[in-house]
Every structure is written in C-alpha cells, then in structure tokens.
Task: inverse folding
C-alpha cells in the first residue's frame, strides 16, 4: 500500500515551507512584543540598548564612533561579513573602542529567499570572520530586514547566537530621512528597556541616508539622559537583572 507514504510525503512537503517561513512573523512588532519579548530586545526598564546595522563602512562608521566616544556610550554593531572583509581595521577599531560586535549576515540578503545550505554557510562565515578579525566572539544575531527563518533559527542555535531584533527604529535608511524624522520616529516607540536600531552604513539603503541617523544621534542620547536611562550595548542590556540599580545616566 502506498497511501500512507504518499500522504506523509505530501504532509512533509507542506510542513517544510511552513517551518521555514513561520519565524518571519516575528518581523511584526506587535507579535514579538507580546510573545517574544527577548527577540523584541526588551531589558531592564532603566536601560536602553543602542544598536547599529550594516557596517563597518569607512565612509560613515568612524563618524558614529566619534559621537559615541564624545558621549562615553558603548553600543552594539551588527556587522555584515562582506563589509568587514573590506574594512577589517575598522572592525578592530570598533572593538578597541569598547563596543560589542554581532552578526548581521554575510551580505544584506533576505533570508526568506536563501536556501538552508546558503543560510547556514553565510551566517557561519560571518561569525567566523568577525571572531577572527576582531578577536571578539559574537553573541547576537540580527538577520537582514529583521526576517528570521526556520533555518536561521536552527543555525543560530548551532552557532550559539541569540537572535535579537529591536523595539524601535529610526527609518534612517530611506531617501527622505532627516535628523528630525529619525529622532521623532525613534522617540515615538522608545521606552525604558527598549532597543534602538539605527544604521552606521547606507550599503542597503538610500545613498548617504546614514547622515540623518548620525545627526539625530546626539539628540537621542540627550533624551535618554533626560529620561534617566542608561544607554549601552545589548550584552549589558540582556545580562543585567531587571532590578539592576541605575548607573550613570547615559554611558556604560
């Protein structure tokens, strides 16, 4: 009899795409805020995690590092392997300045369109290069476009990476982004315990859009100081208990 194996094969043909695509639902902020607060980047209410995607970029990343140094703030940089491969010294500079590095992928590819083998290969390749170049072992993964897949989740577990997205962003990759629009967009979703997403490179956005995020950054840091939130990297944000006492208002 072939009915059983045929039905099982059909069920498998349906199940595999579902398992691959289902985690992408976490790209919806309301879904992850309610059901996956860790993936949403939530931490202690007296802290805010500051993160940057898409670098390192020799044109723009050093300018962000200058602002962070001036405010004595550390952050997390989600690096693309292909970008780091072109600018390894800049990757080392990020770590030397006390910042955290994490995995954003090899290129800024939509993982929904990548097969299992390519996904695992790209994430492993990026993690390996980041570790070799900077001497720091990444702890976190943020997939391009915030789109997780079943394969990416399994690969992250294998590579000992924790997927983290964000609780607010600045839409600072768009052609129409300005310092005011980035600030207002971040501020509209920002609360204690949140994770901010900005971009220190425009390699996947409108050319030069990073300037809007850079111009908004001092104002955002000042607002966090006014609110009494400590700003720092994801590693600190996620490692400290929610009842942790406040330290100095902005830098960590």
Result:
């Amino acid at each position: 009899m072939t009915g059983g194996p045929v039905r099982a094969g059909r069920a498998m043909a349906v199940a595999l795409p579902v398992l691959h695509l289902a985690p992408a639902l976490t790209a919806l902020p309301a879904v992850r805020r309610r059901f996956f607060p860790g993936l949403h980047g939530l931490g202690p209410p007296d802290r805010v995690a500051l993160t940057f995607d898409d670098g390192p970029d020799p044109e723009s990343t050093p300018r962000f590092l200058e602002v962070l140094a001036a405010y004595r703030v550390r952050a997390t940089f989600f690096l693309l392997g292909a970008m780091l491969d072109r600018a390894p010294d800049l990757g080392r500079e990020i770590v030397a300045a006390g910042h955290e590095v994490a995995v954003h992928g090899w290129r800024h590819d939509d993982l929904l369109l990548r097969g299992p083998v390519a996904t695992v290969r790209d994430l492993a390749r990026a993690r390996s290069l980041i570790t070799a170049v900077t001497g720091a072992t990444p702890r976190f993964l943020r997939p391009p476009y915030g789109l997780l897949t079943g394969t990416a989740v399994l690969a992250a577990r294998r590579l000992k990476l924790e997927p983290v997205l964000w609780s607010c962003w600045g839409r600072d990759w768009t052609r129409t982004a300005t310092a005011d629009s980035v600030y207002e967009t971040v501020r509209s979703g920002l609360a204690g315990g949140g994770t901010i997403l900005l971009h220190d490179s425009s390699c996947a956005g409108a050319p030069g859009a990073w300037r809007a995020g850079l111009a908004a950054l001092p104002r955002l840091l000042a607002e966090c100081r006014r609110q009494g939130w400590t700003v720092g990297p994801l590693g600190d944000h996620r490692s400290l208990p929610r009842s942790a006492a406040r330290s100095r208002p902005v830098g960590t």
Q: What stands out?
A: Confidence is low (pLDDT under 50) at residues 5-18, 240-250. The beta strands are 47-55, 76-80, 100-105, 140-141, 162-163, 168-169, 195-199, 230-232. The first helix runs from residue 3 to 21. The chain has ten helices and eight strands.
